[in-house]
Amino acid sequence: MAHAQIHGVHIHYEIVGTAGPWLALITGGRRSYAEFVPLARRIASHGYRVVLHDRRNTGASQIVIDGDLGEEECWADDIVALMEHLDASPAFYGGASSGARTCMLTCLRHPQAVRALVLMRVTGGPFAAGRLPEMYFGQFIRAAREGGMAAVCATEQYRERIAAYPPNGSYLMGLDPAHFIRVMSRWLAIFSSGPVDPVFGVSEAQLGSIAAPTLVVPGNDKTHASTSGLAAARLIPGSELFRLPIEDQDVDLIPFTEWQEHEPALASAVDAFLRRVAPG
């Protein structure tokens, strides 16, 4: 595990594997990269160097509540800069849920940096659109309004980020709650302004403009319904579809860790795809 200053932000990362092509693998939500370590090890065993990182405002990386860009656009710019810092660009990019969306934004914003995409558990549909804005932004805006930054720091997610990187605590407590509310509200507006169907936050025209070879692995819960993954595979030119032997379930969210039994097959499919579309 290591850290780097990327765009002036402390970014916590880890490289799994010692040789081979580079793959940046991005987890979902605002979770740390820990849940991807087993999959990264399986992919690395096929001959890759897999970069895992905690995006700004997640895990053991620095919290920065500022800037004019949306939070996910910052994530896309940061990961490209991190890969350049590691002399690993251009690279393969893969992710699940918001990590898949970040990969798509990375390709749209920095097409020259992306050799191929692996999109898992693509998000879309009205259920996700009704759930995610509150989960990512609304609850924290409300906490700041009702109890200031102490209330924000007391939420489970921010407690975890402070424990993982203690300077985050003093940073947050030093923020003016009005600034926090203003920035988070802007991020919420940006996050909620894009399309809902079939893929959340990425328009059909944007999907159609993706030129990088793409592998799509649909999800199987109400936030990541298989229909969203199937639509992404249909709309991204020349993309390939890999379906795990799973059925959609009537639950809000299936944790990625519950896909553990499928990780050997998933790693093999990723390896076969990358070798086929970008040999060498």
Work out the count of structural domains. Answer: 2
Query: Unreliable segments (pLDDT under 50, ≥5 consecutive)?
Result: none
Cα end-to-end separation: 27 Å
What's the alpha carbon Rg, rounded to whole Å? 18 Å
Counted beta strands: 8
How would you describe this protein?
By secondary structure, the protein is an alpha/beta fold. The protein is 45% helix and 15% strand. It contains 10 helices and 8 strands. It has an 8-stranded mixed β-sheet with strand order 1-2-4-3-5-6-7-8, with helices on both faces. Helix 3 links the parallel strand 5 (91-96) and strand 6 (114-120). Helix 2 crosses helix 3 and helix 4 (126-154) runs antiparallel to helix 7 (177-192).
